[in-house]
């Protein structure tokens, strides 16, 4: 990588190679321009000047300001403060999980420790489909391994569809 780029809110390492598992769907984004070398086979590659990233980072900035306000209201105590609660909704395959990964990674990069609650029983971002689950996010989400699974709380709903 020459310059800075990120995948789902997690910055790409400036040196060395990153092995992306086969059939992974990723989007590499750069705010200021970057050169990224890809080696291997991909189903599709493209560049776009139109992305929702400005909206996403503005949402992150608003959430960060609300977290800071919640911390200040608790006398600066990070453990006692409870920042905003956010629910991301939308149709199937509209980017809900992608947005969540970015917001979580950006928050963790700034030192916050949000809890990710996955209510999408059809996809299962934290565990398998058919479960509702939650896990603390203490660092930006790993590009290859995804959401950390050290301490998830999971309940089996029993069906991959809420109907």
Automatic annotation (TrEMBL):
Gene Ontology MF term list: ATP binding; polynucleotide 5'-hydroxyl-kinase activity
Highest taxon listed in the record's lineage: Eukaryota
SUPFAM superfamilies: P-loop containing nucleoside triphosphate hydrolases
Example GO BP: tRNA splicing, via endonucleolytic cleavage and ligation
GO annotations of cellular component type: nucleus
Keywords: ATP-binding, Nucleotide-binding
Domain Clp1 P-loop as annotated: residue spans: 90-162
Domain Clp1 N-terminal: 1-70
PANTHER family: CLEAVAGE/POLYADENYLATION FACTOR IA SUBUNIT CLP1P, POLYRIBONUCLEOTIDE 5'-HYDROXYL-KINASE CLP1
Protein's name according to its UniProt entry: Uncharacterized protein
Organism, scientific name: Aegilops tauschii subsp. strangulata
